[in-house]
UniProtKB/TrEMBL annotation:
Locations listed in the record: Cell membrane
Official protein name in the record: DoxX family protein
Record-linked InterPro entries: DoxX (IPR032808), DoxX-like_oxidoreductase (IPR051907)
Family statement: Belongs to the DoxX family.
Membrane topology designation: Multi-pass membrane protein
Organism: Rhizobium grahamii
Length: 160
């Protein structure tokens, strides 16, 4: 173990040294745990949103109506936008859960989040910022060892 990150507090330590020891301990939280929580939690958010847009295998009329009246995305037909959103909100979360193509899936959903923030709900930036942190954690650090990406990279001799 690295001596800089030891969890034992100095014997002469008071409250300050104990807090410092605790802060160093936070650095021991494994990225695999953080990435797994990020992948699963953000996948659930988008999956649940996707479920509101479909009835079985069909995009609902209500979803198309929302894209016509409330979302009003520029440059794209509401029918096409509803179908693309329903697909993306099911496909990319599924990939995140199994950890396959995780960085690209996170990037795709981050792009979708930016579109939502800029064109649909600009006042929801605290929520979208929280989502972005999950995506950026996956993009920057990878999906962790509990993923198909990791197994594939080990098979081919590369780290994820």
């Amino acid at each position: 173990m690295n001596e800089d990150i030891m969890l034992t507090a100095p014997s002469s330590g008071g409250l300050a040294s104990r807090v410092q020891c605790l802060m160093r301990g936070f650095g021991l939280i494994p990225h695999d745990l953080i990435a797994s929580v990020a992948r699963l939690s953000i996948a659930a958010v988008f999956w649940q949103s996707g479920q509101t847009k479909v009835d079985g295998w069909h995009v609902t009329d209500n979803a198309v109506y929302l894209f016509q009246t409330e979302y009003k995305l520029p440059f794209i037909d509401p029918w096409v936008a509803a179908h693309l959103a329903a697909f993306a909100e099911h496909f990319f979360p599924l990939l995140l859960v199994i950890g396959f193509g995780s960085r690209l899936s996170a990037l795709a959903l981050l792009g979708m989040t930016l579109v939502i923030e800029i064109f649909v709900y600009p006042d929801a930036w605290p929520t979208h910022g929280t989502w972005a942190v999950c995506f950026l954690t996956i993009i920057a650090g990878g999906p962790g060892r509990l993923s198909l990406d990791h197994l594939i990279s080990r098979y081919f001799g590369r780290e994820s």
